[in-house]
Design a protein that fits this description.
Catalyzes the reversible oxidation of malate to oxaloacetate. Belongs to the LDH/MDH superfamily. MDH type 2 family. One of its GO terms (molecular function) is L-malate dehydrogenase (NAD+) activity. The relative contact order is 0.13. The protein contains 10 helices and 14 strands. The chain has a 6-stranded parallel beta sheet. Strands 7-10-11 form a 3-stranded antiparallel beta sheet, covered by helices on one side. The N and C termini lie far apart (44 Å). It is globular. By secondary structure, the protein is α/β, with parallel strands linked by helices.
């Protein structure tokens, strides 16, 4: 008998990332080339028409794995029976907006969406938050979904991970496939820490194959500020590369991997306060993320991990004080 289609909900479906993401999901790249999918596109009322236009284009691709598409502005309907939720739609920071305003506006989106997931999603729901500030938006959604296991709420640092692979590969003039054990720690923000002290190239530690000044003054800031550099160059934030990273994250979560980076709820490992949704080196086994344990963290890395984690704690405190969690 044919497999039952898996329902995948994408919020912000009419946006830039949505447009780069939906066709790849429908073609089988999110879950596997033998897994049929049903798509649910959630948008705000003003953008439902544009999302419906994208749905028309999805129809026009006649994807063999795409068994149905719905377009809605009703979160309860969108998440009803969903097994994967990609939370892409968010309130961007606009001129004059303070951090508290940004968190408040996003709390108004991710709180209700978390509740709608809690009340309607399938038991095996997996949530990836892409919309910024992704880690804290994921925390807000998670806190409104008490019936869903906390670890099902994750945030995306896979784009940062892929950027780090690419920058290092270019520096050492090796294919990206030669690089193993790359790690992004902390927040998806400029404080994130891309770690070359555990990454390996050709079986040897990456940090020992580059000079310290390049690592400190070029590599780390280039990766950490790449999002801003893309905005500056394109006049819009990363879309295709963000969609690609979202595909990578969910595919690996479902199908398994030995080492990548993902922001997942901390269990206290590596001194990261429990509950914070922070990026770690992770493996995925039996459909669950596991933090890779036992890495030695030297003073250089410790300082940078702590700085990014501190920022996440401040964001958690701010959303608590705003009554958002
Ligand atoms: P976009 O502005 O093109 O699209 C966002 C869409 O979300 C819009 O269509 C908007 O109508 C919709 N939306 C807003 N509120 C919504 C709600 N409550 N429910 C459903 N839909 C809603 O933006 P984009 O380029 O697609 O980027 C989306 C988000 O992803 C932004 O927050 C961006 O900063 C973030 N982003 C994250 C990463 C990452 O690595 N984590 C990378 C790139 C971009
Ligand atoms: C990125 O890393 O490309 C984005 O998070 C940047 C942004 O602010 O949307």
């Amino acid at each position: 008998m044919a497999q039952t289609p898996v329902k995948v909900t994408v919020t912000g479906a009419a946006g830039q990332i949505g447009y780069a993401l939906l066709f790849r999901i429908a073609s089988g790249q999110l879950l596997g080339a033998d897994v049929p999918v049903k798509l649910s596109l959630l948008e705000i009322p003003q953008a439902v028409k544009a999302a419906a236009g994208t749905a028309m284009e999805l129809d026009d691709c006649a994807f063999p794995l795409l068994s149905g598409i719905e377009v809605t502005d009703d979160a309860n309907k969108a998440f009803d029976g969903a097994s994967v939720a990609l939370l892409v739609g968010a309130r961007p920071r606009t001129a004059g907006m303070e951090r508290g305003d940004l968190l408040q506006a996003n709390g108004g989106i991710f709180g209700p969406q978390g509740k709608a997931i809690n009340d309607n999603a399938a038991d095996d729901i997996r949530v990836l938050v892409v919309g910024n500030p992704a880690n804290t938006n994921a925390l807000i959604a998670q806190q409104h979904a008490p019936d869903v296991p906390a670890e099902r709420f994750t945030a995306m640092t896979r784009l940062d991970h892929n950027r780090a692979l690419s920058q290092l590969a270019a520096k050492l003039q090796v294919p990206v496939t030669e690089i193993k054990k790359m790690t992004i720690w902390g927040n998806h923000s400029a404080t994130q820490y891309p770690d070359l002290f555990h990454a390996e190239v050709g079986g040897k530690i990456a940090a020992e194959q580059v000079d310290e000044a390049w690592l400190r003054d070029t590599f780390i800031p280039t990766v950490a500020k790449r999002g801003a550099a893309i905005i500056e160059a394109r006049g819009a934030s990363s879309a295709a590369s963000a969609a690609n990273a979202a595909i990578d994250h969910v595919f690996d979560w479902v199908n398994g991997t030995e080492w990548t980076s993902a922001a997942i709820p901390s269990d206290g490992s590596y001194g990261v306060p429990e509950g914070i949704i922070s990026s770690f080196p992770v493996a995925s086994r039996d459909g669950k993320w596991e933090i890779i344990q036992g890495l030695e963290i030297d003073a250089f890395s410790r300082e940078r991990i702590d700085a990014s984690v501190r920022e996440l704690e401040e964001e958690r405190t701010a959303v608590r004080e705003l009554g958002l969690i």
